[in-house]
Amino acid sequence: MKIIIVGAGKVGYSLCEQLSREDHDIIVIDTDAKLLEEAQQLLDIMVVQGNGASLEVLKSAGVQDTDVLIACTNADEINLLCCISAKKLGCKHTIARVRNPEYNQQIAFLREQLGLSLSINPEQTAAQEIYRLIQFPLFLKRDSFDKGRVELVELKVDEGGKLEGKRIMDVTDILGLHVLVCAVERGDQVFIPNGRFELKANDRITVTAARSDLAKLIKSLDIVRKKIRYVVIVGGSKVAEYLTEELEKSGVEVTLIEKNEEVCNRFSQRFPKQLVIHGDASRKGFLESQGVGRADAVIALTGIDEENLIISMYVGRLGVEKTVSKIDRTEYAKLFSDTDIGSIVCPKDLVANEIVRYIRAKSNSGEGSVRSLHRIVNGKVEALEFLAPDSAPYFNVPLSKLNVRQNVLIACISRNYQIIIPRGDDCIKPHDIIIAVTDAEHPISDLKDIFEKDAVKAE
Amino acid sequence: MNIKITCNYLGKILLLVAALLLPSLGIGLLYAEWLPALGFGVTIAIMAVSGVLLTRIKTEDKAIYAREGFIIVSLSWVVVSLLGALPFVISGEIPSYLDALYETVSGLTTTGASILSDVECLSRSILFWRSFLHWMGGLGILVFIIAIAPLGKGNGMSLHILRAESTGPTVDKITPRIHSSARILYGIYFGLTLTETVLLLFGGMTLFDAFTLSMGTAGTGGFALLNSGIASYSSYCQIVIAVYMMLFGINFNIYYLMILREFRQVRKNGEFKTYLCIVAASTAVIATNIAHLYESFGEALKHSFFQVNAIITTTGYSTANFDAWPELSKFILVALMMLGACAGSTGGGLKVTRAILLLKSLKAELKRMLHPQSVVTVKQDGKPVEQETLNRVTVYFSTLIIISVVSVFIVSFAGYDFTTNVTAVIANINNIGPGLNLVGPTCNYGFFPFYVKIVLIFDMLVGRLEIFPMLLLFSPAVWKRR
Question: ipTM value of the model?
Answer without folding.
Answer: 0.76
